[in-house]
């Protein structure tokens, strides 16, 4: 089975972090976005310094790493701008539906 190989590049120290595996780019981007939104993470604290890269694929049956298609996927700064959380005060509570009859109205 082939798995995609990813790493987060830290521009401030000019180094890639330890690689990790995901099945798809979207899955890796979602995990990266979660780190971008976590106020405790250094990625969220310094988004200008980090970017997510797809390094290639790893075949776990042959142990072959193929770097074809290696590319940068997203900057942390982009995640912070796109997924900026809105303040809780703007959230309006939903009315509770008392019964299925009331819901049908």
Describe this structure in words.
The structure is a single chain. The chain is an alpha+beta fold. It has helices at 25-37, 42-45, 76-82, 100-104; strands at 2-10, 15-16, 20-22, 50-59, 65-66, 71-75. The protein has one domain (2-104). It contains four helices and six strands, in the order E-E-E-H-H-E-E-E-H-H. Strand 4 (50-59) and strand 5 (65-66) form a beta hairpin. The longest helix has 13 residues, at 25-37. The radius of gyration is 20 Å and the shape is elongated. 12% of the residues are buried. Mean pLDDT is 82; it is low at 93-105.
What is the mean predicted local confidence, pLDDT? 82
Unreliable sequence segments: 93-105
Distance between the termini: 52 Å
Count of discrete structural domains: 1
What is the helix content? 25-40%
Radius of gyration: 20 Å
How much of the residues is beta strand, in percent? Answer: 25-35%
Helix/strand order, N-terminal first: EEEHHEEEHH
Quickly give the structural class. Answer: alpha+beta
Number of helices: 4
User: How many DSSP E strands?
Assistant: 6
Principal-axes shape call = elongated
List the helices and strands and how they pair.
Blueprint: E1 2-10, E2 15-16, E3 20-22, H1 25-37, H2 42-45, E4 50-59, E5 65-66, E6 71-75, H3 76-82, H4 100-104
Antiparallel strand pairs: 1-2, 1-3, 1-4, 4-5, 4-6
Helix pairs in contact: 1-3
